[in-house]
Specification:
The structure is a single chain. The protein has 250 residues and is an alpha/beta fold. The protein has two domains: 42 residues; 168 residues, P-loop containing nucleotide triphosphate hydrolases (Rossmann fold), CATH 3.40.50.300. It has eight helices and six strands. It has a six-stranded mixed sheet with strand order 2-3-1-4-5-6, with helices on both faces. Helix 1 packs antiparallel against helix 2.
């Protein structure tokens, strides 16, 4: 089971608060306290994500896919990064109104020699971030090929958001906004320009994708089971044996 670190932290915080409370009133019941803390943990875990969606980040090598994911998940940026070998995995929770969506993000390699590996992870993806670099015309020209692979391998009606990354490199721009928007319109995609270096529109891009997926699921355009795994039961006795066997005679 993968548990959000914040939830684990909250579990122990709640447990500590309960222990402190019982110690204060001098009626400390360890078994009752643990049960209350576990119940609190279960409720919080269930509320942590109502839906869980697999998405892929796709595009030619060097367009900044990994930098975008790092900016989203860790809010960091590394100037020099190695090209992704195969795939890398991250998860991230996004809130839509009162609903929390968990995105399982597969950051795929863009190099041709790893393309067959990357394509294997497109299967059953219900959404994709399709990325090109605004300073790289070749990465834009290869979008059609990546999009064809997505349509062939991803879930039917998967949502796709087109991203023009590296918007901070204004002087090196090779693709105009109108060119990119025209491509997006032809393929019924949302288009957003981002900068992983500056953090511009990164959260917005993934938020738009999550909303598009969620809307398609609710309309029945994307079918499947998207509930996250439930927290495992933790068997705890609420009625401990009042006369436990003594194993130590010391």
């Amino acid at each position: 089971m993968e548990v959000n670190p914040q939830i684990s932290h909250n579990f122990f915080t709640y447990f500590y608060q309960q222990v402190s409370k019982f110690l204060t009133i001098k009626k400390f019941d360890l078994n009752s306290t643990i049960n209350k803390a576990v119940s609190h943990f279960h409720r919080e875990y269930q509320m942590s994500a109502q839906s869980c969606y697999k998405i892929v980040v796709v595009g030619t090598s060097g367009v900044g896919k990994t930098a975008m994911v790092q900016r989203l998940v860790d809010n960091t940026f590394q100037e020099e990064t190695q090209s992704t070998v195969g795939v890398e995995f991250k998860s991230f929770n996004i809130t839509l109104d009162t609903e929390t969506i968990k995105l399982n993000i597969w950051d795929t390699a863009g190099q041709e020699r790893f393309r067959s590996v990357s394509k294997a992870y497109f299967r059953n993806a219900v959404g994709a971030i399709l990325v090109f670099a605004l300073n790289n015309a070749d990465s834009f020209n290869e979008l059609e090929s990546w999009l064809n692979d997505l349509h062939t391998l991803a879930a039917p009606n998967a949502a796709v958001v087109l991203i023009g990354n590296k918007s901070d490199l204004v002087d090196d721009r090779a693709i105009t906004e109108s060119e990119a928007q025209s491509f997006a319109d032809r393929h019924a995609m949302t288009y957003i320009e981002t900068s992983a270096r500056e953090g511009t529109n990164i959260s917005e891009a993934f938020l738009r994708l999550a909303k598009s997926i969620n809307d398609k699921v609710k309309k029945g355009e994307i079918k499947g089971q998207f509930q996250p795994p439930t927290a495992p039961a933790v068997p705890l006795s609420t009625n401990p044996d009042p006369n436990p066997k003594q194993t130590c005679k010391c």
